[in-house]
């Protein structure tokens, strides 16, 4: 099992410390893993999202959506890819909608990050959340003493590659669903992800890795934009600018000043998120949103240690800025709406780098 380019492998010395680190880590891990209970699967239920007054009026229209679950299997890879779709009810062959595919973080599932999926669908953007077997919530279900091994396996290069392939499979498979295929704008597809999922998005968006003198790429040319939330660096792969030089599509980076990843044997902080943003080609049309005090897990569905008020504010703001970004690059709305939004969020923003005009 090769260790991947996302997380450093844990040293033997670090493993000896696991009995000290394990108990508090497991408490935090299970807290993160339980925000989306699998018994609460919703199928074909129509709901209505409330618009937020602070969003530009063009993106604040109330639209109904429904939630659909798919039990997909990729026979070519002998791999299950269960997925959840948030579907705008108004979508039709005469009113086609863009698509964003979401990649969950380590230990997540297709049921997570529902606050984003619901919001995007309410803004007229279909949101497909795929589950990545091997790095999903299944890592939490084994014996407690197997947790570290499960995490190391989840962070293997094999799983990192499989995740990127899951995203491309999800796009292809949704295009094969007759109830939805003709209502999708096939030239307006984005990929979004949080943490491990942000790296997955970057791989699908064009990031490359060198192995034995060979450049490896999992770029999907159908993808036209990225939303990367709390992206870790590509550890041990050399010059990150070289890795990201082919990520040339519009990209929104989202992070917070307390955005720290802590797992046994690995730590990555806010400076790493900025490094990923800076490493992306200067010619790329990229935007950056940094929230004051926002933690790594604040972007999930759960309420973390930052407190209810900040959690609600950051979640709301993340939905809004990502929605405005997606509408800019997929619907052709003016990026000025993002700058107008930022002007009203000064108390919440540490830093904001706007998107350039869309050609």
Quick structural summary:
The chain is α/β, with parallel strands linked by helices. The protein has helices at residues 12-16, 18-33, 114-122, 147-154, 157-175, 178-181, 196-204, 240-243, 270-279, 308-331, 336-343, and strands at residues 45-48, 64-74, 79-88, 97-103, 126-130, 184-194, 208-211, 214-217, 223-229, 251-258, 261-263, 266-268, 286-295, 349-353.
Mind explaining what this structure looks like?
- The protein is of the alpha/beta class.
- It has a single domain, classed as 3-Layer(aba) Sandwich (Rossmann fold).
- The protein contains eleven helices and 14 strands.
- The chain has helices at residues 12-16, 18-33, 114-122, 147-154, 157-175, 178-181, 196-204, 240-243, 270-279, 308-331, 336-343, and strands at residues 45-48, 64-74, 79-88, 97-103, 126-130, 184-194, 208-211, 214-217, 223-229, 251-258, 261-263, 266-268, 286-295, 349-353.
- The strands form three sheets. A ten-stranded mixed sheet has the order 1-2-3-5-4-6-9-10-13-14, with helices on both faces. A two-stranded antiparallel sheet has the order 7-8. It has a two-stranded antiparallel sheet with strand order 11-12.
- α3 (114-122) packs across α10 and α5 crosses α7.
- Residues 7-60 have low confidence and may be disordered.
């Amino acid at each position: 099992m090769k260790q991947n380019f996302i997380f450093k492998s844990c040293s033997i010395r670090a493993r000896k410390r696991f009995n000290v680190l394990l108990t508090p880590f497991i408490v935090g891990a299970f807290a993160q893993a339980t925000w989306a209970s699998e018994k609460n699967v919703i199928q074909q239920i129509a709901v209505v999202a409330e618009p937020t007054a602070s969003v530009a009026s063009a993106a604040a229209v109330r639209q109904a959506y429904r939630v659909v679950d798919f039990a997909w299997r990729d026979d070519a890879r002998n791999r299950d890819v269960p997925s959840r779709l948030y579907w705008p009810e108004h979508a039709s062959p005469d009113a086609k909608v863009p698509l964003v595919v979401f990649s969950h973080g380590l230990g997540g599932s297709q049921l997570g990050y529902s606050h984003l999926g619901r919001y995007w669908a309410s803004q007229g953007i279909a949101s497909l959340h795929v589950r990545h077997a091997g790095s999903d919530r299944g890592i939490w279900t084994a014996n407690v003493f197997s947790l570290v091994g499960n995490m190391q396996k989840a962070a293997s290069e094999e799983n990192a590659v499989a995740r990127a392939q899951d995203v491309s499979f999800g796009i292809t498979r949704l295009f094969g669903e007759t109830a939805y295929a003709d209502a999708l704008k096939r030239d307006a597809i984005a990929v979004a992800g949080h943490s491990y999922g942000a790296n997955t998005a970057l791989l699908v968006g064009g990031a490359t890795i060198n192995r034995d003198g060979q450049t490896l790429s999992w770029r999907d040319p159908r993808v036209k934009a990225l939303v990367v939330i709390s992206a870790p660096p590509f550890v041990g792969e050399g010059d990150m600018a070289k890795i990201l030089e082919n990520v040339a599509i519009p990209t929104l980076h989202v992070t917070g000043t307390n955005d720290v990843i802590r797992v046994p044997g690995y730590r990555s902080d806010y400076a790493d998120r900025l490094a990923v943003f800076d490493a992306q080609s200067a010619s790329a049309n990229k935007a950056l949103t940094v929230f004051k005090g926002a933690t790594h897990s604040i972007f999930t569905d759960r309420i973390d240690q930052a407190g209810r008020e900040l959690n609600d504010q950051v979640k709301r703001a993340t939905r809004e800025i990502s929605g405005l970004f997606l509408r800019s690059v997929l619907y052709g709305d003016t990026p000025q709406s993002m700058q107008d939004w930022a002007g009203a969020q000064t108390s919440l923003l540490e830093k904001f780098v706007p998107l350039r005009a869309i050609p």
